[in-house]
Amino acid sequence: IDIEPRTEPKETKWLQAAFSEHELKQWGTTYQQLLPLWCAKEAAAKASGTGFTENPVHWCIQDISDQRRQVSVFHANTSYQVRLWSTAEEILAVCCH
Asked: Where are the alpha helices (DSSP H) in the chain?
């Protein structure tokens, strides 16, 4: 599980650094576009049992459902399915693996 507030921090370069150039081109570059995907990566990393032991860019967003409620994250030959929920205040990501 990962929960993140929607409040945009002053510095967001860390967030863009967590995504490959391909991911940024395909899924967006703004904080509001990337935050749910960051939550998905973090939930998948936690579900793997290791967390981010390496650069988050190695956890790749493979697919996003039309309504951005389901995200596929790929890492180390494993695909993780993450479900997203959001409110005006926060984003919740749950990965059952």
From this structure: 13-17, 21-27, 31-47
- Return the C-alpha torsion angle 36, 64, 77, 41, nearest 10: 0
Model confidence pLDDT, tens digit, residues 20-70: 999 999 999 999 999 999 999 999 999 999 999 989 999 999 999 988 899
For residue 28, the number of C-alpha atoms closer than 13 Å in the C-beta half-sphere is: 11
Q: Using pLDDT thresholds of 50, 70 and 90, give the confidence band for residue 97.
A: confident
Going by their DSSP bridges, the two strands 2-5 and 60-64 should be labelled as: unpaired
CB atoms closer than 10 angstroms to residue 54:
12
Backbone angles phi, psi at 38, to 5 degrees: -60, -45
Distance CA 88, CA 4 (A): 11
